[in-house]
Amino acid sequence: MGMARARARRLVPLLTFVTLGMILGSLLQLAFFRRIDDHSHITHLENDQEAALLRLGLVKPEVISWSPRIIVFHNFLSSEECDYLRAIARPRLQVSTVVDVATGKGVKSSVRTSSGMFVSSEERKLPVIQAIEKRISVYSQVPEENGELIQFNIKRGGQRVATMLMYLTDGVEGGETHFPQAGDGECSCGGKMVKGLCVKPNKGDAVLFWSMGLDGETDQNSIHSGCPVLEGEKWSATKWMRQKEFV
């Protein structure tokens, strides 16, 4: 009993430190978004072109959950940027595969109806891609060099620490991004009411979420999935960010 109490006493300062760290991190994040929203206080920008690159005054952050950390950035991409990204991706889209249990190889499946591709190293040098990647870095506060190549996905009818999911099309019914462990309410997922939070795939919006908590541990509550697309085509682009430089 005495040893158990001693361990408990040793854990209290550690837990208090972790809790304070999580609270401080949340407050800093919130302060950062307020500065972005009121960009008149941001004085480090080199010129108006950089402000335009970051879409200051247009991007509107909305924190929908702190545990897990989920932030929707309305108007993160312009309509022209969405169309540009789709034009890059369309010629090289490949049907997504599933693993064949017998061979261990990827095979096409009638139950998987999505297609995808990654931006190439050469395409990453394009001005539009560079602008978007810098914007992702600024709003996520994760260095550009820690980011993986952007992946595109289309659906008809170290460790990764954060993900930026960008929506490229409108007129989509269903296709929400569902976080079943977030919040304590219900939301519509592909026309069905489910527990958790759902983010609608509005063109130009982006959702940023962390798979690692402020305490440095994996946040199991960040589990998510795509809801069924009932009508239209849901195009998205995904940027994963890691703890260390991605090479």
Automatic annotation (TrEMBL):
Report the GO terms under cellular component. Answer: endoplasmic reticulum membrane
Record organism: Oryza punctata (Red rice)
Listed name of the protein: Prolyl 4-hydroxylase alpha subunit domain-containing protein
Q: Which UniProt keywords apply?
A: Dioxygenase, Iron, Membrane, Metal-binding, Oxidoreductase, Signal-anchor, Transmembrane, Transmembrane helix
Please give the cofactor(s) recorded in the UniProt entry for this protein: L-ascorbate
Q: What catalytic activity is recorded?
A: L-prolyl-[collagen] + 2-oxoglutarate + O2 = trans-4-hydroxy-L-prolyl-[collagen] + succinate + CO2
**InterPro entries under this entry?**
P4HA-like, Pro_4_hyd_alph, Pro_4_hyd_alph_FE2OG_OXY
Q: Which PANTHER family does the record cross-reference, listed alphabetically?
A: PROLYL 4-HYDROXYLASE 1, PROLYL 4-HYDROXYLASE ALPHA SUBUNIT
Its membrane topology is listed as:
Single-pass type II membrane protein
Asked if the record carries the keyword Transcription, the reply is no
Where, subcellularly, is it found?
Answer: Endoplasmic reticulum membrane
Q: Name one GO molecular function term.
A: procollagen-proline 4-dioxygenase activity
